Amino acid sequence: MQILTQLSRALAGLQPLSSTPSSCSASQDAVSRAVAIVDITQTMSLFAVLLDNHAYADLGRVFTLNATADFNATGIPVCEGLPAIIERLEDLRDAPSMMAISTQFVEVQLPVAARATTYVTGNMFTPGWTEPSFTEYGKYGSHHPREGKVLGSLMQFIHRYITDFVLTEAGWRVDSLVAVGWASHLETVEPFNSCANIEKAVFDRWESRPEYASKVKSEL
Q1: Contact present, 176 and 161 (Cβ < 8 Å)
Q2: Which of 58, 72, 87, 93 is the most buried (most CB within 10 A)?
């Protein structure tokens, strides 16, 4: 990413000469946009990696110092500034997660601004946390207490991030993030340390519903 940053800065600083054909200017713009798109998509992918690794101190590689972030969470105000963003995400330190970046679309507004739309899916285990709504889920067989060993919730989430980027001396950074989406709790489970435990939790959910169980078994 350092090479991309240097190239982005160099291309943004180039000014075509008056005698340069318009085709050369258009080619320069095309290269600048291509480099910016790669750098920005890399930055969003880095965001997911840092969250999964709980490397919150490195979020300066993603956000500007004065960035704002609206995670669209009930009762959580908009985070104003990088320190506030880090403080908010620090609440997830004890929650193992697996985030995946899917569709990304970047609109570059040369020379130093861009907007990215990024779709994010993932799973998160929240130790020791269940919501009252699990009582309702239990009526339909989605909640399985295991003799007092229920220690947390497995949550699946789908978000769309709308991010405004600016080109800084350090590279492209998020200056504003707005999350749009929803999350649904799949299961209350014991802590997991492998994908097999996640699969078991989801299978148990299907197994509890006779109309799904036979179909699932036939496809395994």
Answers
A1: no
A2: 72
